[in-house]
Amino acid sequence: QLLESGGGLVQPGGSLRLSCVASGFTFSDYAMGWVRQAPGKGLEWVSAFGGSGGGTYYADSVKGRFTISRDNSKDTLYLQMNSLRADDTAVYYCTKGPWGTGFIWDYWGQGTLVTVSS
Amino acid sequence: EIVLTQSPGTLSLSPGESATLSCRASQTFSGNYLAWYQQKPGQAPRLLIYGASSRAADIPDRFSGSGSGTDFTLTISRLEPEDFAVYYCQQYGSPGTFGQGTKLEI
Known about the structure:
heterodimer; A: 118 residues; seven-stranded mixed beta sheet; four-stranded antiparallel beta sheet; B: 106 residues; mainly beta; globular
């Protein structure tokens, strides 16, 4: 199970931190990520963190503004979002990969809505 | 960046019929790292197919994937009412990108 939290309304230029608490699997072994979906639009991969000490990866659209991190002792994935823009408005899904690396997602949370608006 | 183009945008069929959804990549990618997801309204996506043709856990065998290189297909045989949804393809190389989706409607 993946349970996201931290979404909400924020003004342009503001910051938010999303959290995703995982359960039911050995969190540290698997790649984890964030995928977003703007209202009425398709899916956009945002960021990923490899398992077992793997690296971090970002979409060009968020590079330099978003930071992904994980706390394996707490089975929790984070997404720190800074300098938010209106086009960051979306449902953000926490995702789990079937392996320690890669950008494929076999489990998804229910999502948390981030709205960037003044 | 690899761009995935899905067609058609919308597919109208009836239960019991078969659906063929297409996903074309702007360039060849290695390893057939192509996945398909299903998304129903108000729900998170669900992984159906990975490696272009391998079914994910608990996916019925009426879902099948095929293709290689730049052209991939998702086939759904004997459509059930619960199959009507939006389907996305994704290449999961580095990094992963999604197609724009195909809506399968009754």
